[in-house]
Amino acid sequence: MIKKLTFLAILATSIFGFAASSFADVWVNGYYRSSGTYVQPHYRSSPDSSTHNNWSARGNYNPYTGKKGYRSY
Hints:
Layout: H1 2-22, E1 26-28, E2 31-32, E3 38-39, E4 42-44
């Protein structure tokens, strides 16, 4: 019974850790564009292949600025 509970605890921790890391926010350092414009440091959503789960997508919002998404992809 204890081995089974230990296994389930390890499994749950692994799954939760994977899920949390796959939806983490990413810090972007400030940088200069080729045009000379400076972009302030900021957070962005984790990169992935979907455009519908980005903060700027309609129906979503940016948790750091409180702005609603406006883009329909």
